Amino acid sequence: MKYIVFILFTVMTNAAAQLMLKQGMMSLGPISFEGVNPLVKLLQIVFSPWVFLGLCTFVISMASHLYVLSKVELSFAYPFLSLAYVAVAIFAYFVFREDLNGWRIAGIACICVGTVLIAQSGRGNEAQTASLSSDKIRSEIIR
After folding, report:
1. I need a surface site. Which of 16, 91, 105, 134 has the fewest CB within 10 A?
2. Number of domains into which the chain is organized
3. Do 73 and 133 meet the contact criterion of CB atoms below 8 Å apart?
């Protein structure tokens, strides 16, 4: 559980990146490739300020996730990324005035319950994994 701060940082930077990308695409308006070189249009999109900032934030999120993966089990860390759905839905409701109806709220509740269950499964596993690793090393040395 000591890496939960890094996991939550990964989740929040992932969600922030999504919000920045949405803001960037809204500021660009509807995308049309008619009469425009697709490569030029793609470069315009990528280098628009909000989209570029969102992509950079994704890079930070991925670096954080890689750090987390070097410390905890994938089956523990990865499900936490679903909390990004929760954060995006809530912030999109307040920032972009997107719909947050009963079905979405129920889905968010299910995601939160599932994440809590997964978090509970990780309590104490770090110490157990560390002791298993050290036990395995000792047994190899003794042989």
Report:
1. 134
2. 1
3. no
